[in-house]
Design a protein that fits this description.
424 residues; alpha/beta; seven-stranded mixed sheet; 15 helices; 18 strands; 34% helix
Length: 424
């Protein structure tokens, strides 16, 4: 592009720089710049098609579109006006956008009721589906084969609501592969912090929502999290993000747990206190691919005074425990675990009035949001089966307080019992 410099959010540049992709997808929360960027890039691609002598349409679609006021037309017009050479290249009226040489024209359509008319459109060069979260699987099956011109592309933008929605299931993956293993699509997660031009007025709205909305709604609107508060969530309504400073003279603890990571899983460690019949998670430390020789040094930076206290670790790795003891964690010891330990540990955590998670413990907070029971695919009923994922920091938490649980202590815990339980 020699006409002018096109500025994009840095996170989206690799997506639009790969000419081999058929599916270019961005999902995330409000204020990320994804909609404006994709609107702009449809116009850029329209320019390139027309200059290359190709003729056809750019289809701008949404699930529901009763009139042009419901479409992305105004967003595309604003994007075109923001770039002088594009503004000179297109002509825009109340009901149309097209290149002045008439080779490329925008068509706006709803997918719910207009799929048959879309199938009759000739030569769709590019299709952009905005607000795509609610597009059904049947709509995708009918739409995608109509985008069949050589080198044609499909742009998809949405704020994810359900992790199992048709759109998210099809396109919400970092990479999409064809039958031969070739990368034909990528999905980038975009949120407000990824937008270098995030406006101050939206920052004020974001802070207001952060203060007034519940955590689930806030994260869905601004951080692209799934809008899930279902019965399948193991710790639904049990946890809360809260900054705090423990009082070692009055609080019980700290208790420290360590879960060893493997190739794709993080080594995870948490430091937790017990006070007022609540659990208080103060610090976390974790990393994927953390070498055993580097673990003690890493955890010392993340978990203050870790060497001073007992650390309870996964007993399936006795050689790792022995190694870390030699490296300086002299009070590290294995937990007992045993049959039913996961379920028992979860119920013990849930028996506390509340679990308060410090805002610095971002991964722990994420796991508390995502840790779930399995749901029946046909009935959507919650099953008494724990999904073994999103649980590394939670496992570390179970290890940290396992000895308290094993002593059969209820929530009216006294300091003498705690000291006895952890005496070595």
């Amino acid at each position: 592009m020699t006409k002018a410099k096109i500025e994009l959010p840095p996170k989206l540049i690799p997506l639009f720089s790969d000419p081999n992709l058929r599916y270019l997808v961005a999902k995330g929360g409000r204020g990320s710049g994804k909609t404006r960027t994709f609107a702009l890039m449809t116009a850029v691609m329209g320019y390139m098609y027309a200059e290359a002598g190709r003729s056809g349409v750019i289809l701008s679609a949404r699930e529901h579109l009763n009139s042009l006021s419901d479409s992305s037309m105004e967003e595309i017009k604003q994007a075109i006006r923001s770039v002088p050479f594009l503004n000179d290249y297109y002509e825009m009226g109340e009901n149309y956008i097209r290149t002045k040489n008439r080779r490329v024209e925008y068509v706006f359509s709803g997918l719910r009721h207009n799929l048959d008319s879309i199938k009759s459109k000739a030569c769709i060069l590019l299709c952009w589906v905005d607000e795509a979260e609610t597009v059904s699987e049947m709509a995708w099956r009918k739409l995608l084969p109509t985008i069949r011109e050589e080198g044609s592309q499909v742009y998809i933008t949405y704020n994810p609501e359900r992790r199992d929605s048709a759109t998210n299931t099809r396109f919400g993956h970092p990479e999409m592969l064809d039958d031969d293993g070739n990368v034909i699509g990528r999905c980038v997660v975009m949120n407000y912090m990824d937008n270098p031009w995030f406006p101050h007025v939206l920052e004020l709205e974001r802070r207001r929502d952060q203060a007034n909305l519940d955590d689930v709604a806030y994260r869905w609107i601004w951080e692209g999290a799934y809008l899930e508060m279902s019965e399948a969530q193991i710790f639904k309504g049990k946890y809360e993000k809260k900054d705090f400073t423990p009082d070692p003279q009055k609080w019980h603890g700290p208790y420290i747990g360590l879960d060893f990571g493997f190739a794709q899983d993080p080594t995870a460690c948490v430091k937790v206190w017990i006070h007022d019949d609540c659990l208080w998670i103060e610090h976390e430390g974790g990393k994927v691919g953390l070498e055993l020789d580097d673990t003690v040094e890493f955890l010392e930076k993340k978990i203050p005074d870790i060497k001073k206290y007992a650390v309870y670790a996964d007993n399936s790795r006795p050689e790792s425990i022995s190694h870390l003891k030699k490296k300086g964690l002299r009070r590290i010891a294995p937990v007992e675990k045993g049959k039913g330990s996961v379920e028992d540990g979860i119920e013990f955590i849930k028996s506390f009035k509340k679990v308060y998670i410090h805002s610095r413990c971002k991964e722990t907070l994420k796991e508390f949001r995502d840790y779930s029971y399995k749901k029946d695919r046909l009935t959507d009923d919650v099953l008494p089966i724990i999904i073994d994922k999103d649980n590394h920091y939670i496992d570390a938490l179970r290890y940290a307080i396992e000895k308290v649980m094993k002593r059969g202590m209820g929530l009216n815990i006294n300091m003498a019992d705690i000291e006895s339980a952890f005496k070595r």
